[in-house]
Amino acid sequence: MTRGRHKKMLMLFAICLVTVFAEPESSPDELYSRFPKNRDEDKCYDDNGRPQRCIPPFENAAFNVLMEATNTCGQDRPTEFCKQTGVQKKSCEICRYGDHEALFLTDHDNNDNATSWQSETMYEGIEYPNQVNLTLHLGKTFDITYVRVLFESPRPESWGIYKRRNEKSSWEPYQFYSATCRDTYDLPDLKETVGGDDTRVLCTSDYSDISPLTKGTVAFSTLEGRPSAYNFEANPALQEWVQATDLRITLDRLNTFGDEVFGDDHVLKSYYYAIADVAVGARCACNGHAGECVNSTSVDGKTRRVCRCEHNTAGPDCNECLPFYNDAPWGRATTKDAHECKRMY
Q: Which interval of the chain is the signal sequence (predicted)?
């Protein structure tokens, strides 16, 4: 690939990312509706009845899904915290039970209803190596496009994102952010991989400064900085890389001005983690064989999201052919071939 063509492709990819992260010009109802309307991608058959690749709508998979937090201020007793204001005199408040619950991580947050989750402070022992974990169970495999975190406190000095491919698999690192990548995570400070190393876990020092003191955003794009993303359909490793059933944010080290060494109570109480919103841009993983995800109640009484499979496929992710439809091996649908399962005669 020539340098000029590579540069143009990078610019096009950047434009796509801007489109993903930009705030849509929609009404609040449209913005927070789980499913957008008037789509063509959900059609699994064309106007002539021929099978074609179809995908469920893009959504915020985290919206109104309760995250589990290993630490929350006010949970056991009222605790005092002081806000970082950039001046010596600090404004202190009391956090009581219910003031900053984990449910506020994924609720409908706006200027008229500003909510946030918050941990206890450094005064209560929230400091490295004691980490705080925030876990999100999506209930089904999703193709993750991005994870966006809006911090109410200063962004952490070191933190990470982990994923799990299914409920029985182990947690795998997804992305790290740290001013001390090598010391904290034993990783070099890198923003991108090289070809052939597409699923390498990265750590970057970007977004690890204590400024801004509030409303700092970090958006992790699962495919940004991975050259083979331009040929995603032909890359099984990357297709698996973007998939997750569960996500976890680990908050490892607070950002400070260094004044905590003096042991002043109000200073220690001014250092804590607080997050206003967590969003996960994703689609239900249906391998190109379903245009929607629906709720299904299993024999154990639990309600789960499942793909409404087409193309004679079956399984929670349309990951197999229906019985007696194995004339050709199952395959993931692409823009060139729907890989419809065909009846055996």
A: 1-22
d(CA 242, CA 221): 10
The confidence score (pLDDT) of residue 86 equals 65
Q: What is the pTM of this model?
A: 0.85
- Contact between residue 307 and residue 289 where contact means Cβ atoms under 8 Å apart: yes
Q: Give the Cα separation of 55 and 43 in Å (integer).
A: 8
Sketch out the chain's domains with CATH numbers.
Answer: 41-56+286-345 (2.10.25.10), 59-284 (2.60.120.260)
The CA-based angle 90-93-99, given to 5 degrees, is 140
Distances (CA, A) of 129 to 107, 121, 132, 173, 184: 29, 14, 10, 18, 10
Q: pLDDT (tens digit, 9 = 90+) per residue, 3-44?
A: 444 444 444 444 344 333 333 333 333 333 334 444 578 899
Q: What is the pLDDT of residues 310-341, one digit of tens each?
A: 999 999 899 999 999 998 899 999 999 999 99
d(CA 140, CA 316): 8
Alpha-carbon distance of 9 to 19, in angstroms, equals 15
**Contact residues for 110 (Cβ-Cβ < 8 A; gap 6+):** 28
> Does the structure show a pLDDT above 80 at 111?
no
Q: What is the pLDDT of residue 7?
A: 42
Distances from the Cα of 130 to the Cαs of 153, 159, 207, 237, 251, in angstroms?
Answer: 18, 12, 21, 33, 9
Q: What is the pLDDT of residues 120-139, one digit of tens each?
A: 999 999 999 999 999 999 99
Give phi and psi for 227, each to the nearest 5. Answer: -55, -35
